[in-house]
Design brief:
The chain has about 200 residues and is an alpha/beta fold. The protein has one domain: Maf protein (Alpha-Beta Complex). Helix content is about 35%, strand content about 25%. The chain has 7 helices and 6 strands. Helix 6 (about 175-180) crosses helix 7. It is globular. The two termini are about 15 Å apart. The model has no long low-confidence stretch (mean pLDDT about 95). Bound molecules: inosine 5'-triphosphate. Inosine 5'-triphosphate binds next to strand 3 and helix 4.
Length: about 200
């Protein structure tokens, strides 16, 4: 039998992020599902002291639930570069440094044969009492380009060439990213979970 608290997940869920790129991807990926994604209005700053994407997403979701007393979903994501031992990984936001981080990655890979990288997106849903109700983590695999290209998307999109494509995520039509990215896969999994509650 389904846990009572799960049955009570409301349609309106607060997204615990300060990242505008994430917010707009969430809004368009949840369109037409009946899930209303509302951005957190209160000033929101989470320390993110965990050593995994799931731990950091859990910290953000719980903190947002504590502040808002509502059901909250949080995203912790980043880019892992194989030849850099998985860095910047959970440190992707601070490593980005207004785009300087993209140049650092390209420089680090200058003589590397292995240009493989993947994005990770961990999502965690917390109840209004701050209990974790659901979580997932998905990947998007690709390679690092020779230089930043394109203005679509956000963050490291201009240096990430998804497997199966010849352009960077920054050059690709945004509708393509919406279908295949780490965030798209995680949100799809959330939508399946959400719809299963109402059936
Ligand atoms: P919140 O914690 O407020 O959600 P943030 O930007 O600090 O916002 P993260 O700690 O999860 O979020 O850091 C993720 C970073 O990884 C993000 O700032 C980007 O630089 C990068 N990133 C994540 N998803 C990405 C995507 O789809 N495309 C490009 N870069 C991405």
């Amino acid at each position: 039998m389904m846990n009572k608290s799960l049955k009570e997940v409301p349609k309106e869920i607060i997204l615990a992020t300060t990242n505008k790129g994430k917010k707009s991807e969430f809004e368009s990926l949840c369109e037409g599902t009946g899930i209303l994604i509302k951005n957190i209005e209160q000033p929101f700053e989470c320390e993110e002291t965990g050593d995994s994407f799931i731990e950091n997403a859990t910290q953000k979701a719980k903190l947002a639930a504590k502040i808002t007393r509502s059901y909250c979903i949080a995203d912790d994501s980043g880019l892992c570069v194989e030849s850099m031992n998985g860095e910047p990984g959970i440190y992707s936001a601070r490593f980005f440094n207004n785009g300087a981080g993209m140049i650092k990655i390209i420089e680090a890979l200058r003589n590397c044969v292995n240009r493989n990288a993947f994005f990770v997106c961990a999502l965690v849903l917390a109840s209004s009492e701050g209990r974790v109700l659901w979580q997932t983590e998905k990947k998007w695999e690709g390679t690092i380009s020779q230089k930043p290209l394109g203005n679509n998307g956000f963050g490291y999109d201009p240096i990430f060439i998804p497997n199966g494509y010849s352009q960077t995520a920054g050059e690709l039509d945004e509708n393509v990213k919406k279908e295949i990215s780490h965030r798209a896969k995680s949100i799809l999994s959330f939508k399946e979970f959400f719809l299963s509650l109402n059936n």
